[in-house]
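Final report, closing paragraph on structural work. Over the funding period we assembled a curated collection of sequence-structure pairs, and we close with a single example.
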Amino acid sequence: MTIQTIEAKKVFVSVDNTAQWIVFEEEMQAGFNYQLASIEDLHDYVAGTGEVFTYNVETSEGVVQWHEEQLPYDSPLDYVCEYRVIN
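Its predicted structure, as stored:
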């Protein structure tokens, strides 16, 4: 059995102020004032800045990846843009 590892960066959000973001690969660098971001935190970040993390991101729910999909013409939505758990 082969175990595949997925490269991902950890993204942290401030416990005191969710407008403060920090990207580190090591939890110790982030310190005690930060916690691992959730998917909801990432969606809030995209809504507030218009920017997405284009690399795999480790969140409290697991490793996620940005996903964009154009839906069929007769669908009530045109696009789906979201982070999805990949591992």
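The mean pLDDT is 81. The beta strands are 9-14, 21-24, 34-36, 57-59, 62-70, 79-85. We thank the funder for supporting this effort.
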